[in-house]
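Dear all,

This email documents one entry for the complex benchmark we are building for the journal club exercise. For each entry we list the sequence lines for every component of the assembly. Then comes the predicted three-dimensional structure of the complex as a token string, followed by one or two observations. Please use this as the template for your own entries, and keep the labels exactly as they appear.
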Amino acid sequence: MTGPYHQPMSPTWWLRNRAYFLFMLRELTSVFIAGYAILLLILLYQLNAGRDAYQSYLRFLAAPGMVAFHVIALAAALFHTVTWFNLTPKVLVVRMGGRHVPASVIAGVNYVAWIVISALVAWIVLRG
Amino acid sequence: MAALLAPVQIALTGIVAARGWSGQSLTYDRALALVSHPLSRLYLLAFISLPLFHWAHRFRFTLVDLGLRRGRRLLAVVCYGAAIAGTTLAALVLIRL
């Protein structure tokens, strides 16, 4: 016996069609969101370190490169969010009164919840 | 979690606060008061930890999908280890705030 058989696969299989490419792009979004989580952790660390450290970190975040990173991360996060909401109706099949709840309703509920939660977070942070 | 909260979170600290559009709402005193609330700390711990584990898992299997055959065990240790380290650091910082 020589162990399980592995179908040989080229490292560029995901460039072969659009669906595979979008899948890979979606996998990549996790890199940006995790990168953001680390910047947020540093923000908290600097906040803990004192007023000067916090303010100089905010100046660092204001640099064009950092803002550009956040714009890309925001685009990645939005792509992740929208693709997730669009696939939930496929995972979550809800029956009501013997009928399937239409996919658009399930996705719609997600979008509404998302907007409400985002507005709530923005309000809590910015009401100051 | 990441799907619902990441966009607003990134926009708030990465763009609004960084560009100084947040006025007085994210000054040092206000930011400290905001994150000192127990619920904020829990929220922030989750918001830092979960994306790291999400990344660790995705990144690990993306490299495997790209054809990585050797060093898989090492890769798993590095990915999940980084996520565990990040979570621990976040917990330490948040406890001391």
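Observations: The beta strands of chain A are 95-96, 99-100. The mean pLDDT of chain A is 88.
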